[in-house]
């Protein structure tokens, strides 16, 4: 699509969205009485550590409309500086809440002090306290990422309840499951582009991110097509008025060296802030002959011409050049005994100098916001993202569905493949938000209109390669690349209209969301010169109810739906219907008074319908009679205590089952690579007094239970337990001249546990990450 056409679409979409919002919400406000018509927005609480959730809206006395614009802005600034008070609650309760403060007010996409997040945009697209969101949400911020020395999103979420982090050592992409289902990645609330194959996937470096959020359960009512397990939202580091300056150097035992930097501040006038975050690393991995290079940078700036308007420009560029650190091994020799011995963790079964994976990602966009008055705010988020990947490699035969081992149990069959692929996504999300009251009810109403145009192209070639001896490996066999076997492309346009109302009455919080999507997909076969067009439409909704007690407890109950288009045709030539998911979730969130502690519990039941399964009348085609269920319970705790102790703990019990299928061997079986039990605990303590002041220790344990590597549940992957550790020291306590310098040493899989992280067949098993010890020095000023 030409650039001028895209900007034209963006402008028209924004105008339509604003007009629709004004018409709808003006009608809604007209239903209130004369007092509520003059209602004003309640400010967000200034209390990051506040343990009770304050309402989004209160009703103040109407201001005279003859006030000057300057007076209105000053009044709004003073209004935002006050803690809000729930309707029907007195100043004594507000005073109690304020006294419990452990930090400053926290934006839903801003920095987190310690391990405890209090607000997020991901659950409602509004700056809502987690206590008031009727859905399980986990948030990992910079402090936790730094303390645990997480280098990927998979590693950052390894202590999160309900998230299965497969393939922790894969340098190509993130492999995750939420409640049994595979999610896609979002960046700042908008989906990143994906290619048609498993290789064309995005991967954003953690050094460019402020936080990683997990929204669990169906969420199509705000985001459109999405897996029923939930989504991963990556939040960019945003410009800040306070100076942010840091540089960090790291090196690990596999020979990788890395430097990160983060620079930010404001101009003299204070109306423009900026930030530049980036990273550069290179060196070895745990697999022989596989090196890993990355360079990434994310410049951004924010312009606030007045108190009511904000424009934030966000961009990024990331270049990866690596190989297949994720090797395809047979089950015999990894998962099962082999008379020739166990396959070493560092074994490389490709061809040195030939295996290659590179990825280029780039994105640019903006977040615009303008407040017309105390009630109305409009936003427009826009981004264009490009993804280019190129994979050519020799790998174990399991990568291509071949039989891996020959009868001698030491000779590995191999295949060769090439996957050049690219994908793009242009996304625009228009929002109109109104904060008003109708009688005793306070509302935060949100009307949105979004549009996404995504493209992808794949040029695939697959063939066989000479076998190799796993135990007496000799490289250098001649490799002949095959001709192209698949050259295809896809175009998809998605338009969605959504409406949400967050209603407050005393301690009650009712959240209602609804959305309708129209999705058109064109699939092109460039070899045959054919095109298949498919149009889908779906409505999805969510209803949730919380009650926020004065002492910080918030039980909730919620129902939500999701959908995903399913490409392909039935034997009769009809297009498949979208798969749908629905969830019932009950839970509770608790922030005890006077603490910076968040405890959450959730009980859920998810059913996904319209899954494709082989047609009994013709196995060359599929029918949509499949169904899968996931149900379980999750517990999570995060704390940042004043005596230097920070911790996270989680437990998840996830019972998945194939409830309908035309394949008898799969009926009643668990979904693949999804453990039934997972638990984790991490604690970090920094001494606050005495000779050890400034010295800190951290340690963690992760348990991942048994899972299955095939749909028939014949391949059992045993559970395993891993230990992590860290030490760190603030050198300013040794010498004031070293203020801002921190040393740290981190070790993951401390005892070098050899384990199989997952299998997809007896011919394709993957080893987990071995012991990795990283030393780092960080300087902030």
Chart the SSEs and their pairings.
Blueprint: H1 3-30, H2 34-37, H3 69-80, H4 91-99, E1 119-120, E2 128-129, E3 137-141, H5 142-148, H6 153-156, E4 163-166, E5 175-178, E6 185-187, E7 190-191, E8 209-216, H7 220-223, E9 230-236, E10 244-252, E11 257-266, E12 272-282, E13 293-306, E14 309-322, E15 356-371, E16 376-396, E17 411-418, E18 421-438, E19 441-469, E20 486-505, E21 508-525, E22 530-547, E23 553-564, E24 579-590, E25 597-615, E26 618-640, E27 645-660, E28 677-686, E29 695-704, E30 707-708, E31 716-717, E32 720-730, E33 741-748, E34 756-761, E35 764-767, E36 772-780
Parallel strand pairs: 6-9
Antiparallel strand pairs: 1-2, 3-8, 4-5, 6-7, 8-9, 10-11, 10-36, 11-12, 12-13, 13-14, 14-15, 15-16, 16-17, 16-18, 17-19, 18-19, 19-20, 20-21, 21-22, 22-23, 23-24, 24-25, 25-26, 26-27, 27-28, 28-29, 29-32, 30-31, 32-33, 33-36, 34-35
Distance between the termini: 45 Å
**What's the total helix number?**
7
Task: Tell me how many strands there are.
Answer: 36
Q: Please estimate the helix content.
A: under 10%
Low-confidence stretches: 1-105
Q: DSSP strand (E) fraction?
A: over 45%
Overall mean pLDDT: 86
What structural class do you assign from the helix and strand content? mainly beta
